[in-house]
Give the backbone structure.
Amino acid sequence: MSDGAQRDGAQRDGATAPRYARLRGDWLPRGWSDAPTTLVNWRHGRVRQLGRDSFYAVRACDGRTNLNSPALLPGHRRLLDRYLAEGIAEPCPAGTPLDPGQEYRRFDHPMIWGVHWAVTGRCNLNCRYCFMQAPSGRYGHPSSAEVSQLLDQFERAGVFQVSLTGGE
């Protein structure tokens, strides 16, 4: 009997066809010491702290896990269907990889959502509302290499948002 005939026979006997999904490119599974099972949308700034079962279902959206596998309980499948309906995950062919950076990453510190970075104090204005009290510029400004090092540190720490200020 051919493989296709075996699959068709299995489907007639009540088995369900395999199906696969992957997280959409703007959703990232992340964990911190105070939020170990978190789903973050880097594009819109949404953060979802998930329970164990919800996070298990999210991790199954990897393009490799058969969503109809017996390893997934009916509750997991309901969660997966919700993630597909909400656009958090999308159907895909078997083996479709996640985008780079979408693998689960865990950070051994509390969640740091964002950094407000005053890149330089040099400014030719003296705005009333400026917390930098420009134009003092007493600390100068970082070199390109220092900026690159700081951005690498932010990325390694799991910081998702960096707002820049300073200068004109």
About this structure: The helical segments are 3-12, 52-59, 74-86, 144-156.
